[in-house]
Amino acid sequence: MESYSVLQWMFFFYFYCFAGWCIESAYVSVKERKLTNRGFMRGPFLPLYGSGAVMMLVVSMPFRENLIMTYVAGCIGATVLEYVTGVTMEALFKVRYWDYSNQKFNFQGHVCLGTTLAWGLLTILMTKVVHIPVEQLVFSIPDRALKVSTYILTIYIVADFSLSFKAAIDLRNILVKMEQVKEEMVHIQKRLNDIFAQVNHGMENYRTAFSESVSAAREELTEGMAVRFEDVKSGVEARLETLKNMLLTKPTEYVESVKEEFLELKTRYAVNLADRNRLGRIKDFFQRDMIRSNPGMTSVEFSESLEELKKKAAEKKEKKKEED
């Protein structure tokens, strides 16, 4: 390999972004038995593949004639790139676009031994086989044509990446808000339990009942993020129904003292439920497309909410097919 100009490096990056998209989309389409546009971006480019290819070329340059060192450099360089990219994307977007948690010898789900070893082999394949004709192709392109085509690709990819980045941030915000609604529901359930204890036991036993209720509510709140939203929703609805009946059948001073708060909690529940349903509809096409393009997307923090969005996106797609 010779030394390359900045434009040539950029063209290599774009070329391998496109080649990676072709391979990945073809593999997933065959696996899923339907055409699938894979990747973070909407267009036919996967930046991770382009970055990986360029990284392989860079780290292998000092060891051109040494296969063992080329292999080791590829293993280390690609694994570091994959780990840093995975951690960064999860920190930004709160989801993982790939997850090796179910693989042996994985580290935090971002990298695993199997892919690390494979990266080394791919580096050898890249430097000794794949890149040679690609290099010759780029060298054969006139400088002016290379410059124009690289500039056009840069403008297109920057625009695509910007839209995709915004969609990913918006999707993250939806997941955060869905979880906030769930947490608010847990708070509502906690307070409804307090009211139930107050009405059910009367003021003479209220202190004991309140203490027990708060203790139980704290446990619920601690486990709230692990509890399914539907379970919390069902619990709140059941408690609202029970309290409504008690308010109607026990018109005592204790009941009158909590009636206003009960109505407030009922209103808060209705508002939060409406917000959750609105968030789950994901009207934005870019967000739905990102979910469909990454079927393996996972989230440690927002697992339930993400699965709900995936289900809604799939249902919307099926509904559209039926209408067409």
From TrEMBL:
Keywords: Coiled coil, Membrane, Transmembrane, Transmembrane helix. The chain crosses the membrane at residues 6-23, 44-63, 69-93, 105-130, 150-169. Residues 171-198 form a coiled coil. InterPro entries: CmpB_TMEM229 (IPR010540). This is ABC-transporter type IV. It comes from Acetatifactor muris.
